Amino acid sequence: MKKRIGMYAWGGPGTIRLLRTKYHQPKIDEKSFLSLYEEDYWRKAKDLFGVTDAWLTYSWGFSDEREREDYTFIQSKLPTFKKLKIACHGYVQGFNVVTADFSGQDIFCVDAKGHVQPYSKGRSLTCPNNPQAAKIILDRVKRACQEDFSSIFIDNIIFGLPPMYVSQDFVPFYGCACSYCQDSFYKTFHYPLPISGFSAKTIKDFLFFRSMSTQNFLRKAHQLTQKFHKQLGVNLYDPFIHAPELFFGYSLQKIEPFLDYLLIENHAHPARVPLGNSHLLQFIQRQEKTVFVVSYKNGIGFEEQFTQHDIDSIFSESSHLSYAPCLKTTEFTTRGEWHALRLADLKKPKLDLKPVRHALIKNKAVPQTSFLQKKIAMLEQNHAAVVLNLLYENRWLDFCVRKLGFYQKQLWSIKDYNLD
Ligand SMILES: [Zn+2]
């Protein structure tokens, strides 16, 4: 099988607009995003890395009106990729939209108290069980299918806010409590959605319900892409670091049949984490489909331009573990300025042939709850959406939380619990 090398390359006017939506007064090297899809850049990328695949921005979750210029932009760039024989994956935003562009519409995930759940500053989570919310994404998938992409890629399969706290005998309510979820849950299990918190029995039903909801949504997306003879991919995050049924709302086994390739995004960059992506080895070995891995060092907003060593370690590791590297190409912040990957200083990767050490992530047993933990969990259940909104939207609070590394700690901690 031909070795595939990907670049995860968000660009164009939509990416600049999204950065302005997502962050407080960001300093942006606009030219680097507007020229990211130029022929010279990809000729050089092909020469340096042997790129075969590129993930390109189609829709970031703004209104159709605001995204019109993005569609025109990408349409004008696709012939370049065809000429260079690079397969293009049309990037479509998953279960979230830019809040202001859809204000007043009943499409959002809500918590047990009815608060809309934020995804980032300026964006809120939408519910796959809500037909109108699902239609927004599926309409975009359909439109992208009519362009010269070889696959459509849906990002951010996150069904409501994930839980911050999990225990054996009590989990605070998390995910979505919208009327569509409540109706659908009742129809499936014949008792109401447990919005005052889960017991050991009801959490099992809820996990099943969430993964079934995501499966139903992706089945529709798959039917669409099949109709247009396009492939389908989604961002799986890392199902071996965070139990996906619990944190994202999907079951790998249930959605795998709809996916033509598997893309894992994590923070296991081999230049930062000693064991890198070695925990994926067994998964990669039993896969017939291509496994792409996008590894961040510190995460979006904390990532400086990759050094030659960063690039070398990705390519070395991918050759040892036999995955297809997908190189983060965008949203670097060097000296406080957002920019796309600068190729000028980079050379062809030098492979380190030393064998890599292998890690096996053992999934943890779910802990027991103490009285105090239950009280804290109840606070989380009732106030997480409101507090997160406040943290994202207030410039100074957001700054402090970032400085304290809160978001990174959430992303890095291993939460692959044993759910049996
Ligand atoms: Zn819902």
| CATH-defined fold name | TIM Barrel
Task: Catalogue the ligands.
Answer: zinc ion
User: Largest beta sheet, briefly?
Assistant: 8 strands, parallel
Q: Spell out the CATH superfamily.
A: Phosphoenolpyruvate-binding domains
Number of helices: 14
Percent helix, as a range, is 40-55%
The count of DSSP E runs of length 2 or more, i.e. the number of strands, is 14
In CATH, the architecture is: Alpha-Beta Barrel
Explain the overall architecture.
With about 425 residues, the protein is an alpha/beta fold. The chain has 14 helices and 14 strands. Helix 5 packs parallel to helix 7 and helix 12 packs across helix 13. The longest helix is centred in the middle third of the chain and has 28 residues. It is globular. The mean pLDDT is about 90. Zinc ion binds next to helix 6.
List the defining traits of the structure above.
single chain, 420 residues, alpha/beta, TIM Barrel, 8-stranded parallel sheet, 3-stranded mixed sheet, 14% strand, globular, binds zinc ion
Give me the secondary-structure topology.
Layout: E1 6-9, H1 12-22, E2 27-28, H2 30-34, H3 39-49, E3 53-59, H4 64-83, E4 87-92, E5 96-98, E6 118-120, E7 123-125, H5 131-145, E8 151-154, H6 179-189, H7 200-227, E9 231-234, H8 244-247, H9 252-255, E10 262-266, H10 281-286, E11 291-295, H11 308-321, E12 324-328, E13 332-334, E14 337-339, H12 371-393, H13 395-404, H14 406-412
Parallel strand pairs: 1-3, 1-12, 2-14, 3-4, 4-8, 8-9, 10-11, 11-12
Antiparallel strand pairs: 5-7, 6-7, 13-14
Helix pairs in contact: 5-7, 12-13
Bound molecules: zinc ion.
